[in-house]
Amino acid sequence: MTPRSNSQAQCGTRLREIENRLRFLDHLAHLPVAAGTPGELEAYERQVIRITEPLAGLITGEILQASLASETVEHEVETLVKASAKPLKKEGMQGVTGRTASGVAVQITTVYYRRRGQRGTHRRLPGRYAGLVVLGVFEHCTPALAARVRLLAAALSSFEEAHNLLREEGIVLNVKTVRAIADAFAQRARAIEWGAQPLEVGDVAGCQVVISCDGGRLRIRTKKRGPRTKKGRCRYRGVWREPKRFVISVVGPDGRQQRTFTPLIDATLAGPDAMFDLLEQALKRVHIETAKRVLFVADGARWIWTRVQRLRLRLGLRGMVELLDFFPVVEHLNAVAELKKSWSSTQQRRWVKQQRQRLRHGQAQGVVEAVDQLCRGPLSKAVRTQRDYFARNAERLDYPAAKEAGLPIGSGAVESAIRRVINLRLKGASIYWLKPNAEAMLMLRSYFKAGRWNLLKNMANPSFMPAAT
């Protein structure tokens, strides 16, 4: 039997199965059944679901097979094959199994394209089902099922939880498959994000924009040299890494976030330069030059402020306000007071309170002088380190001006993002990540927690895909 005739036979089998299930469902709907208890109602409802879910899968399979034969999809397939960076050779019709949103596996027949090996060799490399790529079928999952898997993987605390919940819904996917679907989705979205395709993320014209960034902590799993374990597994160590994160939000005259603009959140493990590249891209998309006022608020980390000036120049943000997060500044004041062992706790609190009042009244230079006066004795080196912190950030301590302009004096948005995105999902006891998996989850969680999940779906949509490689 040829592949095409096999496809026709599969379609005929699906159509007969659909007709049979429709007749049985119609018969069930006309039965004089009345539930007398909650248990009976639940049992009846589950019986209906057991019939309708396979029916939905069969209908989806029929629609998918018909779509692959349509002129529109065939034209898109030709465009995709021609745009491929590596030549693709048509291998003819092949059968492939796809899984639908109802968890039903359906057999599809479509054209398979294989990549040729290197020149002068007969080696053939893995190819792709171009028609399924055009329709958004990746990892043998229809778009609806893949969207469900990705959402659960990002929202829940682990891939295991997503696997268990899917199994309760009748969708049997192992943990590795759930992880692979989520990772591949994030990789496609990141490729589009770095591409030239414009994406609408909102406008900040006439608004007060707050930009903040910080670093979190998670552990990366790296292989360890030496003999394997008794079970033949590689030994590994957990290395702490700092993912860099930024948040872009819009605040009102009272300094509170405005619901009219959904915050932009993203993170990366690729280092501070890569994070600032992502930040620059995001600011260009929201047309930051049209904002009424721009505030960059963060703690005193040197890796942040050494790159803010470059960002300011490249975006032309001459009027951008730079501000040190007020609460870490107070922590540094407490650190200075604690170095004075001769002071009582009351004296330490009094001194810190006095410096806080100076900061609130715009007397940053007075704070620097007060810290400088304590640079005596055996602890002078430690105090001098704190003094240098205040001295190099003296221009970023103008809190009265920020409050008068209706701007926040803290970076609570990015602190909250670190907790919700990183700490509650990627950081924990005995949790280790491979770097590519961690990068993927950082992106998924960032867009999910920011409320921009639909934007992420559009970014990974095949219609936005760059030339195939």
Q: Keyphrases for this structure?
A:
17 helices, 469 residues, three-stranded antiparallel sheet, 51% helix, alpha+beta, Nucleotidyltransferase, domain 5, 15% strand, 3 domains
Structure description:
The structure is a single chain. The chain is built from 17 helices and 10 strands. α9 (302-315) links the parallel β9 (293-298) and β10 (321-324). α1 packs antiparallel against α2 and α10 runs antiparallel to α11. Strands 8-7-4-9-10 form a 5-stranded mixed sheet, with helices on both faces. Strands 1-2-3 form a 3-stranded antiparallel sheet. It starts with a helix and ends in a 10-residue tail after the last helix. The model is unreliable at 464-469 (pLDDT under 50). It has 3 domains: 3-194, no CATH class; 208-323 and 410-451, Nucleotidyltransferase, domain 5 (2-Layer Sandwich), CATH 3.30.420; 327-396, no CATH class. The chain is elongated and about 90 Å long. With 469 residues, the chain is α+β, with helices and mostly antiparallel strands. It has helices at 3-29, 38-68, 71-82, 130-134, 143-155, 159-168, 175-193, 272-285, 302-315, 326-339, 345-360, 364-372, 380-392, 399-404, 412-423, 435-450, 453-459; strands at 88-99, 105-116, 124-128, 208-215, 218-223, 236-241, 244-251, 264-268, 293-298, 321-324.
